[in-house]
Amino acid sequence: MRPSGRELNEMRSVSIETDVTKHAEGSCLIRVGDTHVLCTATIEDRVPPFIKGSGLGWVTAEYGMLPRSTTSRMRREATAGKQGGRTVEIQRLIGRSLRAGVDRVALGERQITVDCDVIQADGGTRCASITGGWVALRLAVKKLMKAGDVTTDPLVSPVAAVSCGMYAGQPILDLDYPEDSEAGVDGNFILRGDGRLIEVQMSAEGATFSRAEMDTLVGLAEKGVGELVALQEQVTA
């Protein structure tokens, strides 16, 4: 029934390659089907002015899509002089999602910036960015701990994300672009590894949904995130 031939509850193939850049404190290339995102984490001994002197750390994110990450060339946002609304919304989502898995007291007064650059897009770029972003964050924190700059692990739980939706009247897990563009209901689900929900972005795209269907999609998301967290922990062990 699915264009890809996958089962309703089947993820695309997922791989995460770590330490893919020389200079970043943490980096990975995450591939979720044909969606590929480069994630890097940078540690800085500074925090935004609004928390300076509080003793709290900060995790933030930036997101962007390369010009030929899609079927036709997109104009670089830098040439337009500002980021688009979609970009701003997604990078804020990535930042607050990652912070939900961080003990900011244990992190100390420093900032970690996670950059997510979409190399190739085929649906679910924000979910792949969050999942890969946590891996880059984990690798950066491991360096802090190895150096003795942090004594208590500030990452309290992995964070991962997956899309779910209603396609041809059926609930499906991990939408690729052909499914995403035709889905009657589309949702992004961000969870911690302990099962706690961080955020749910869910909307009707030409069809409405029932409470029972929403519960089914949450169940699918829990399954998908469980698989992603297992992979995150494997590649960062």
TrEMBL record:
Record Pfam families: RNase_PH, RNase_PH_C
UniProt keyword terms in alphabetical order: Nucleotidyltransferase, RNA-binding, rRNA processing, Transferase, tRNA processing, tRNA-binding
EC class of the enzyme, as a word: transferase
UniProt keyword rRNA processing present: yes
Catalytic activity: tRNA(n+1) + phosphate = tRNA(n) + a ribonucleoside 5'-diphosphate
Keyword rRNA processing: yes
One GO BP annotation of this record: rRNA catabolic process
EC number annotated for this UniProt entry: 2.7.7.56
InterPro entries noted in UniProt: ExoRNase_PH_dom1, ExoRNase_PH_dom2, ExoRNase_PH_dom2_sf, PNPase/RNase_PH_dom_sf, Ribosomal_Su5_D2-typ_SF, RNase_PH, RNase_PH_bac-type, RNase_PH_CS
GO MF, any single term: tRNA binding
Start and end residues of each Exoribonuclease phosphorolytic domain: 10-140, 158-223
Residue sites binding phosphate per the record: R86, G124, T125, R126
Domain of life: Bacteria
UniProt record similarity statement: Belongs to the RNase PH family.
NCBIfam families named in the record: RNasePH
Annotated function: Phosphorolytic 3'-5' exoribonuclease that plays an important role in tRNA 3'-end maturation. Removes nucleotide residues following the 3'-CCA terminus of tRNAs; can also add nucleotides to the ends of RNA molecules by using nucleoside diphosphates as substrates, but this may not be physiologically important. Probably plays a role in initiation of 16S rRNA degradation (leading to ribosome degradation) during starvation.
Subunit-structure text: Homohexameric ring arranged as a trimer of dimers.
The protein, known as: Ribonuclease PH
Gene name for this UniProt entry: rph
